[in-house]
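In this section we walk through a basic example: taking a raw amino acid sequence and producing a predicted 3D structure, encoded as discrete structure tokens. The instruction is simple. Fold the sequence below.
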Amino acid sequence: MTQTKVNNIQRLKKVFSQSLSISESQINDELEYNSIQQWDSTAHMALVAQLEAEFNIMLDIDDIIDMSSVGKCKEILKKYNVEL
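The resulting token sequence is shown next.
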């Protein structure tokens, strides 16, 4: 795994942790939208805004709607040339 991938995974975990106010240890590919109290619709929009700022991208509406888990988020970010 390249250093860029490692750094981007760390950045992704940091964004999820800050947006959802959860510990990084809770973040894994299986963590799903609405599976924890902290990841509700309001937090989802904050998460999207932070992801866009952190990775300097603009997610399209379909990707925002499809972002149903951390694993799915990684797939979506790859479409925007974020190495994960």
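Looking at the output, two observations stand out. Residues 3-20 form the longest helix (18 residues). The two ends are 9 Å apart (CA to CA). In the next section we compare this with other chains.
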